[in-house]
Amino acid sequence: MAAIPLAKTPLAALKKLVLDDLIQVKSSHVTEALAYALGFRTYAALQASMTGSEEDRPFVLLDTDRFLDRIRSFGYELRATLNKPLISTLRRTDALLA
Q1: 3-state DSSP call for residue 50?
Q2: What are the tens digits of pLDDT across the range 8-46?
Q3: Is 9 exposed, middle or buried, given 0-12, 13-18 or 19+ CB atoms closer than 10 A?
């Protein structure tokens, strides 16, 4: 599991990386799946938790299994061959924190 800071810039960078790998998935579905993978029920709940200074916000663990489950719940069928590069993308946090 990757640790992600609850801040707009890292979350936007992660979303872009995922969208580059999952071009067939709607942007809003990726947003919801990322929120779910970070332990929130919805993106709205994630947004509500992002209060105060970005420097003071916690890091949360991104659960790739929850991400894939949520994407599948939207009706997408992800091939097993796609999951490995996607999981690799979700675990790349160096690019998010630079």
Answers
A1: coil
A2: 888 998 899 888 888 889 999 999 999 999 999 999 999
A3: exposed
Predicted structure pTM score: 0.81
Query: How many residues belong to the chain?
Result: 98
- Work out the burial of residue 39: count CB atoms within 10 Å of its CB; fewer than 13 is exposed, 13-18 middle, 19 or more buried: middle
Between vectors from CA 50 to CA 17 and to CA 73, what angle results, nearest 5°?
50
Which tokens go with 50? 């992002």
Distance of alpha carbon 7 from alpha carbon 81, whole angstroms: 31
End-to-end CA distance of the chain: 19
The type of residue at 83 is: N
